[in-house]
Amino acid sequence: MSRYTCANCKLCRREGQKLFIKGDKCYSAKCPLEKRNYAPGQHGKDKKKMSDYGTQLREKQKTKRFYGMQETQFRNLFEKASKMAGKTGENLLILLETRLDNVVYRLGFAASRKEARQLVVHGHFTVNGKKVDIPSIELKAGDVVAVKEKSQKSVKFSEIKDMQVSTPSWLDLNVSKLEGKVVALPKREDIDTPVAEHLIVELYSK
C-alpha cells in the first residue's frame, strides 16, 4: 500500500491548521505552522477565492490527513458509511474513530495517530486477548485493547503508567493495566476532530 513520504508539517500548512501528525512537536514552538501559517510552495501566500468544489475537496483532504488514510481506503470507508442506517457523514466519522490505530491514540498509548499506527503494525497490542497488527481493524462496543505484556516492560509504555491521560467518554482506560475498553460507539458530539462531514458527503455525491 502506498504511503505519504514527504514532510508531514507541509500537510498542516496546506490545510491551514494543525493535524497533530507529529505528536509533541505540534504542541511546541517548533511547529512550522506557528511561523509560516500559509500553504507551502511558491504561491503559498497567495489568497484565492475557493469554489464550492474546492472547499469540499479541502475538507475531504483534511479529514484523510487527520486520520492518516489514503484515498482508496477513505473512499471505501465512505461507501460503507453510506450503506449504514443514519447520516452518512456521522457514520463516516464513527468508522474513523473506531479504527484500532485511532483508539490506541485516543487512549493515550501514542502521541499521534501516525505513531499509533506504527505501534500497532509492530505488534504491541492485543484486542480481546489476541495479538493484532492491522491498524484499520474496526472495533465494537465491548472490545478491549491492551498493550501486550512483553511490550509493557518497555520505557515508552512504563512511562504512560505515571501519566494522567484524558480519554473520550466512549472509552474507559485502566492506566495501571495499560488497557482500554470501548464502552460504546461514539456519538457525533463525542468526536472533537474539526471536520465538516457534510462537505465530504456533498463531494462524493456529485
Q: Explain this structure to me?
A:
There is one protein chain. Helix content is 37%, strand content 9%. The protein is α+β, with helices and mostly antiparallel strands and 206 residues long. A hairpin with a 2-residue loop joins strand 1 and strand 2. Helix 5 (100-106) packs across helix 6. The longest helix has 16 residues, at 52-67. The two termini are 27 Å apart.
What share of residues are in beta strands? 5-15%
Structural class: alpha+beta
Helix % is: 25-40%
Helical segment tally? 8
The Cα radius of gyration reads 18 Å
- Provide mean pLDDT, rounded: 86
Principal-axes shape call: globular
Strand order of the largest sheet: 2-1-3-5-4
**End-to-end CA span:** 27 Å
Main sheet record: 5 strands, antiparallel
- Topology, number of strands: 5
Along the chain, the helix and strand elements come as: HHHHHHEEEHEEH
Low-confidence stretches: none
